[in-house]
Request: fold
Amino acid sequence: MASVVVLLALGLGCARPDRSARRPLAPERALLADEAPAEAQTFETLRAIPAAGRLEGLRHPELGALQSDLDALYRKSDWGLLWIEQGRPSRAARELVSHLAKADAAGLRSEDYDAGALARRLEALGPKTPVVEVAKLDASLSIAALRNVSDLSIGRANPERASVAIEVEGRSLDLASFVARLAASSEPGALLAKVEPASPRYLALRRALARHRELAADATKMPPPDLGKLRPGQRHPGVPRLRRWLATLGDLPAESAAGSSDHYGGEVVLGVERFQERHGLDADGVIGATTMRALSVPIAARARQLELALERWRWLPRSFSAPPIVVNVPEFRLYALDGPRGGDPIEMRVIVGKALETETPIFSGEMEYLVFRPYWNVPYSIVTKEMIPKLRSAPATLARDQLEIVTGSGRVTTAVNASTLAGLASGAYGLRQRPGAQNSLGLVKFIFPNDENVYLHGTPAKGLFSRRRRDFSHGCIRVEDPVALAEHVLRGVPGWSRERIEAAMASGNDRRVDLAEPIPVHVVYMTAVASVGGQVSFFEDLYGHDAELARELAGEPARVAAE
Reply:
C-alpha cells in the first residue's frame, strides 16, 4: 500500500492559491482582507488531503479507494467547507455523527468512523479553532460519511477476498454525489436511511443482533453444563439451567424459566426440539454431542454470526430482474422466491459440495435454460481421480453405470482398454453417462452459465436428503424436488405443465428448454438467517468462510486498501 506524506504543516496558509482554480470571494467579503488568507488556508488544506491520500488522526488514516471520492466531493464544493457553517457544525454534521455512533446496530463498528472523536471535536469547535483544524475536521466528517455510506451500501469487505465471486463495485453509489447531497440536506437522516438494504429479512437480522448483544451483556445468562447424553424421560441436575437457557434463547416462554425439576420431559423437550430445528439439527429432543455443542455456543459468538450475515446481505443486489432463486449453502436449502407474480414461494433441501474437498463456490448468476434427461459429462478431475482407477480395476463399471467414452473425433465407444484409458488420462477422450434414472444428474439440470461449471440438478440418490448434514457432491447442487423447481422456472414458457415436465423426464432424448427470461441465482453463505416473523436460525460454518470473513473484517476496511 503506497503512502504519501501529508504536507499540511508547511505553512499552507502563507501560500497564495491560484484564484482561477478556486471559487472567488463574494464582493462584500473581498474587502475583508483577513478573510482571504482564511479561505486560502481552507482551500489548500482541503485540496492537499485527497492529494496526499491520508489524514492523520483518524483510526484509519489511509484513504485508499476513497481518495478519488474525497477529491471529487470537494471539487464539487470548489474546495469549500461542507459540514461547518460560520464556525459551527451544521445540522447535517450533527446528524451524521449521531448516525455514525449507531453504526454497531448494523453490524459495523462506530470506531471505524471515528464517531466518538468527531463528536468531541464538534463540541470543541469554536471561534478560536485554527482554520486548518476546521478544514481537517470538515474533511474528517466527509471521510467518515464516504466510508460509512460505502460500507452500508455494498459492504465493508471485498467479497473476492472472502471466497465469494459476487461483483459489487458496479452497484456502488456515486459516493461523492451522495455525500454532497447529504451535507446539503435539511433531512440527512432520511437520506442515510435509504443506504442500507430494505429487505424484511435484513431488518429482522438487525433486530436479532440488537437482542443478542443485549443478552450477551448480561453475565447471568449462562449456557447449561455438559448434560452428556440425555434422552426424554431421564433426569439430570443441569435441567433447571437448561430450562433457563432455552427461555433466554426464546425456545421456551419466559415464564417457563423458573422450573426447578431435574426431570427432562414435557415442555423442556419441546424447547430442545425447537432449538434443534433452528440450528439445523435433527429435532428429536435427544441431547447428544452435536446438540450440546450448539447449546454451549456463547451468545456473543451468535451475535458475531449475525454481524457476518448482515455484511453478506449488503453484497447482494437491492432489486432483481425477476424473483431470484437463492441457495444457502450452510443451511442446505434452496428458496425459489415468487415476488409479485402470485403463488407461494417454494423451498427444498439441497446437497452441496464436500467440505475441504469439492466445496460449492459462492457466486451469483442467471439461469437461462434447463435440460431434461441430460448426459453427464464427467469432469476431468473426477475422471482422473476416481473413474480411471475404477475402470482399470473393474472394466464392467462402464456398462453397469451407463457410461460411454467419447473420442476426440466424437465417436462413442464402450471399449475399456489401454488406449481408451490413456485417452481419458490425457484429456483427449471424454467420459459421459447416458440419460436415465441412473444418471448422476437425475432427470433434469438447471443451467446458469458460470466459470465454475456449477449448476442445479436432480439425483438418483434420494436417501441423502434425509441426512442432517448434506455436503456430499463434487461442487454442483443437487435439489430434492426437481419437478417442482422445473415447474417454477418454466411458468413463463407456454405449454409446460407439470404433466408435460414429468413426461419429458420419463422418456426421450436430452432436451433443452430455454426460460422465458433469465432468473437470478444467488448461491450464498449465511450461517445466521432470520425470518420475517423474527425466528433466528444458526448453522455450522461448513467451509470456514465465517472465520475467513471475520479475519478480513478485523483489519483495516478492505475497500480502503488501494488496489
Summary: Residues 1-34 have pLDDT under 50 and may be disordered. The chain has 19 helices and 18 strands.
